[in-house]
From TrEMBL:
SUPFAM superfamilies: C-terminal effector domain of the bipartite response regulators, CheY-like. Residues 18-134 form the Response regulatory domain. This is Response regulator transcription factor. It comes from the Bacteria. The modification 4-aspartylphosphate is found at D69. Keywords: DNA-binding, Phosphoprotein. The keyword Isomerase does not apply. PROSITE patterns: HTH_LUXR_1, HTH_LUXR_2, RESPONSE_REGULATORY. InterPro entries: CheY-like_superfamily, NreC/VraR/RcsB-like_REC, Sig_transdc_resp-reg_C-effctor, Sig_transdc_resp-reg_receiver, Tscrpt_reg_LuxR_C, WalR-like. It comes from Sphingomonas rustica. Residues 150-215 form the HTH luxR-type domain. The keyword Transmembrane helix does not apply. Coiled coil: none annotated. PANTHER family: TWO-COMPONENT RESPONSE REGULATOR.
Length: 218
């Protein structure tokens, strides 16, 4: 098979890569589409502003690659990824994010993301990343990969610990957290102790700050 590439970067004579762009910010979608349509081997088949629209458009158009923002109102990017992969297990979904935190990246990879790319890298890396995931190669931004390497799997917060920390971030005391989650106060304290140890912090405020930085909390 001749795998020589034309000046656009696609296999000579091959069909263009059909891309669905999903982001809740119109200017970001416009910028992504403009960057991709400069290349002859890519065609934009649709744009969506949230996960629900993305899932509907995926069903209608079956794109080759989905570019999906991670944080959107309603159905978020990772939830939409999970829904798409449930319907088409080999779907190529590239997650886009503003922050290099390891928690969301780990969740996205576990859900089957074909790639995880920082928006700050889009100008230089977008087209090559789209081509790579279309060719069934996984791509992760270097900064994200570094964060994943820095944090051992056993130090990741559990879903219940995240629930507790989310309520801490909202300003609730332990008694209120226990009531909302149907837990004892001692259990809440135990979860917080585990959270502090895993995040390497000594207080609630610092725990929330680190959790946001790593992507556990929005």
């Amino acid at each position: 098979m001749d795998l020589s590439r034309d000046r656009a970067g696609s296999p000579a004579g091959g069909p263009p890569i059909r891309v669905l762009v999903v982001d809740d910010h119109p200017m970001m979608r416009e910028g992504i589409c403009a960057a991709l349509t400069r290349h002859e081997d890519v065609t934009i088949i649709g744009e969506a502003s949230d996960g629900h629209e993305a899932l509907a458009m995926f069903r209608d158009h079956r794109p080759d690659v989905v570019l999906m923002d991670v944080q959107m109102p309603g159905l978020g990017g990772i939830e939409a990824l999970e829904a798409i992969r449930a319907e088409q297990p080999d779907a190529a979904v590239l997650i886009l994010t503003t922050y290099p935190g390891d928690a969301q990246a780990h969740r996205a990879i576990q859900a089957g993301a074909a790639g995880y790319l920082l928006k700050s890298c889009l100008r230089k890396e977008l087209i090559d990343t789209v081509r790579a995931v279309h060719a069934r190669r996984r791509v992760i931004s270097a900064d994200v990969a570094q964060q994943l390497a820095l944090h051992a799997p056993q130090d990741r917060l559990s879903e219940r610990e995240i629930d507790v920390l989310r309520l801490v971030a909202e300003g609730h005391p332990n008694k209120q957290i226990a009531w909302q989650l149907s837990l004892s106060i001692e259990t809440v304290k135990s979860h917080l102790k585990s959270v502090f140890e895993k995040l390497g912090v000594d207080d609630r405020t610092h725990a929330v700050t680190i959790a946001v930085r790593r992507g556990y909390l929005s």
